[in-house]
Amino acid sequence: MEGEGGCKGNPSALASGSLPPPREKHQSESGDCCSLVESLEETHTDTMGLSTGDQGKEAPQPDSAAVGLRAAEHISSTKLCGYLHKQGGPLKAWKYRWFTYEEKKCQLFYYRTAQDLNPLGKVELCNATFSYPLQGEEGTFHIQTPERIFILKAANRDAKMYWLQQLQLRRWQHRDQLSADSSLPTSENLIQNGQQLLDTCPANFLPTVMIPPGLVGEEAANLPVQTNPLNVSIKHPLIEIQNSVQSLLLRRTSQDLRRSVFWLDSFTTDTSKTNTPNIPSSNIPTIAVSPAPMSPQSPVQSAEPESERAHEGLQYPGCSLSLPNGKKKKCNSATMPVDRKEASNLERASRLQQEKLTLAEEVKAQKELVWLLHKALEAAQLEKRACAQFLAAEGEQERLEMLRHGERCAADLRDQLEQLRRENDSLQRSLSERDAHVAELQDSVKLLMEKNQAKQEVILKLSEQVAACIADPQRNISSECISTQTFRQLTQELDSLKDDIEAYKTQNKFLNSEIYQLTRLWQNSSEQEKSLMVKCAYLEASNCQMESRYLGVLRKLQENKELTAAQRDTVRTLIEDALQENLKDVIKFKSVREYDEYGFKLVPDYEVEEMKLLSKIQALEIRSNNLLSQDVGDRSVLARWTQYLGGRSPDDLSSSPELKVLLRWGIPREYRRRVWRWMVRTLTRSLQERHPNLFQQLCEKSRNTPHPASRQIQLDLHRTLTTNQHFCSPSSPALEQLHRVLLAFAWQNPTVGYCQGLNRLAALALLVLQNEEDAFWCLVAIVQFLMPQDYYTKTLLGSQADQRVFKEFMAEKLPRLVAHLEEHNVDVSLITFNWFMVVFVESLPSDILLKVWDAFISEGTKVIFRYALALFKYKEDDILKIHDSVEIYQYLRFFTKTVTDSRKLTSIAFEDLNPFPMKLLRNRRTLHLQRLQAELRELEKLQKEYASESTQRKDKDLDLIASEDDDDV
């Protein structure tokens, strides 16, 4: 950086070595500054008044130009520099730094002291923002650049405001200089720049702040520098050493520049002391050596006696020279060079002595600095060695982690406490404001009541007077002396007011009758509109049914193999026309959404070409059912739930027959999350009470220690609910939440760990509960409390036993269908196994699936058996019409998604399939579980026998090969 004197480095380093300016000069400059500010404010006030009110008048141009010129000259001539506290370092401590502004580059450089040449850093002001905290320390302000935030603190508030204002003004001036057309500072450009500066810095934007005396500018360079060791920049040790060395050289150079061997001044010697004749002072110069001013850091005064003894009795030509013996010798021009040489030698010797002492002090200071740095380095190395030994000890790492965790918890608690304190303060402030507002309202109400009382009294008095006048017109009111003419006028006005009242009453009656008639017409029209909308809904539903039947007929014709080629082409053409037909051409009572509230797709997409016709049939059936049941089923269920939950908190719910019936018919979306959380908390209450922060601990463990099943979990994440809006994107946040829930459960239940299928259970819990911890506890409740043991283990014994139990129930409840499936060698467990593992997730439409889960979380696995049997009974007739095993398997893969009537399915599950005792289910499950365990033991026995036989066979083969080799030899 270039300074004012042309040297590089700190522009105020050389200025700091010179003598401070006189006090009178500073005061005059301050006065000029104040007058300049006043002139700027007056000029701005005039221009503002001109621009707003007096547009026809123009201000005198010479005055504004002169003021702009003076402002530009003042800003360009003032040097912005001074000491500020800067917050930095790992301890966030305040360090005393010298800041100076560089105008050409619009940068703020900072140094340790004003005498340093190399800066410790810089602040780019072109793209920076300035601010200061309202509740921070006095004098604190921030400079935010794109790279970092600089926190600075001035000595007081005035200095802070002066720095902020000057930085803003200097940046505006730098911007104007960059955008100027000509680079030469002509008088016209200077006037224009000054006027622009006045326009861009109005007085009402930021009032002009006076220059803080002694805190800003070159005067601040003479302030004493802090000697605190923490003020040293450990981050830049090389720059510190370079600045120290260069300060020594700079001080020597500045002293050489300040000193001269001879300097001339007016003769001021008292004649009574020197005993010399009165000679004009202009003709008699004096010889003197200018003593070098000592800085406050290194005061040296030992050389002053020698300098005084050297100069004692030394005079110029025309004077007497004092000799060592006390006699005076007349000096002439011939002996003057020798005396000057001796004086210069004496002065040089004294100067060298002073420099020697100064250098000795500087070396001592640098040694102290090096010693401090060396001690700090030794302390850091000892601390590092102790930390390494501490961490290397056994068990200390875990203790350190626990300590860190405790520190983090303490910091979080402190933050929460501080936040609560702030909230408490804000609430107290709001409470006090409200109390004040209430007091004001009470005062205003009291005032209004008094006014009203006064008006009532006036009205009563006037009414009494009017009544008295009407009763006795000839009465004389002595107190008020109302004349006869005034009384007649009042009587006429009273009569006219009575006539107006009667007219308004008649008009009011007429308007009331009109309003009544309009209300009747509006009610009739609204009832007609409602009936028309219902009729439109039924017509649209019947249209959808007819269209679905038509498409069903086309589908049957397509499957008929007895048609000719022409007939098949005709059927194919009709199917293509039906598929290309746009549903928007049909008048719709209510728009069809593509996704429901939980992100599930309402109408599934089939990739197979033959399934597109089935997809459209299903869409029409869903449309028809929604139109017919939207006003009957949903509203009645919502009303019943609202009545049941009205005024109850989530903890007040309890199991009852009424709640059981409501859960079987489904929970409305508005209350599902609340009821699910209550049911899960009821199942896992004991476990949650023993481990209140279990989920957070497991998440922390998952982050620190990889689980063996983490790879499989990561692979299954992108296979979870691929048609759902919340899980279809690879970057969806729901996938990260699901990952954390599955890892936490894998650590919580090491017996199960992770099994394919758990991802779908946790995903559905996340969609409904919308919280990771609640989803985790829901998964724990399903695996550990609702499902039987060994349901998700490696052997899957519980799942296999349930499949055998389901076949027995199916043979009892649906004998015709079972006989039909056995005739075609169809094993339903290939289809139903996945139903039981994931509780119908991705098998049923979303509205029916959520109703199944509502009852499942409440009653357990019996609900799965009921709904599985209900699905086969719902589509029994369609399955009996298929007589090919491949077609039956193909139909069974997707027939659950064609179920649209949830009320009918619920009625079959909980009414038509009764009785369905839980005791019978448990007995059959226990029987088949014992059989499976016996089969498993038999299988393990066979595996061991086979392994031993294979080992013996290998040994015999090896012996045979060895004997053959011996024979060959």
- Specify Rg, calculated over alpha carbons: 50 Å
Number of beta-strand segments: 9
User: Helical proportion?
Assistant: 55-70%
Q: Which sheet architecture does the biggest sheet show?
A: 7 strands, antiparallel
Overall pLDDT: 75
Strand order in the sheet with the most strands: 4-3-2-1-7-6-5
Q: Write down the overall geometry.
A: flat
Alpha-carbon distance between the two ends: 96 Å
Task: Output the structural class.
Answer: mainly alpha
Low-confidence stretches: 1-8, 12-73, 181-191, 193-205, 253-335, 477-481, 582-591
Count of DSSP H/I helices: 31
| Residue fraction in strands | under 5%
What would you note in describing this structure?
The protein is mainly α and 969 residues long. The protein is 63% helix and 5% strand. It has 31 helices and nine strands. The strands form two sheets. It has a seven-stranded antiparallel beta sheet, covered by helices on one side. Strands 8-9 form a two-stranded antiparallel ribbon. A hairpin with a 4-residue loop joins strand 6 and strand 7. The chain is flat. The chain starts with 12 loop residues before the first helix and ends with a helix. The relative contact order is 0.03. Mean pLDDT is 75; it is low at 1-8, 12-73, 181-191, 193-205, 253-335, 477-481 and 582-591.
Record the SSE blueprint.
Layout: H1 13-17, H2 23-52, H3 61-77, E1 81-88, E2 93-102, E3 107-111, E4 121-124, E5 129-131, E6 140-144, E7 149-153, H4 157-179, H5 187-200, H6 237-258, H7 271-274, H8 304-311, E8 320-322, E9 328-330, H9 336-392, H10 396-471, H11 484-559, H12 565-580, H13 611-629, H14 633-645, H15 657-664, H16 669-683, H17 685-690, H18 694-704, H19 710-717, H20 733-748, H21 758-769, H22 772-786, H23 797-813, H24 815-823, H25 829-838, H26 846-859, H27 862-874, H28 876-880, H29 885-894, H30 902-912, H31 918-968
Antiparallel strand pairs: 1-2, 1-7, 2-3, 3-4, 5-6, 6-7, 8-9
Helix pairs in contact: 2-3, 3-5, 4-5, 6-9, 8-9, 11-12, 11-13, 16-22, 18-20, 19-20, 20-21, 20-22, 21-22, 23-24, 23-25, 23-31, 26-27, 27-30
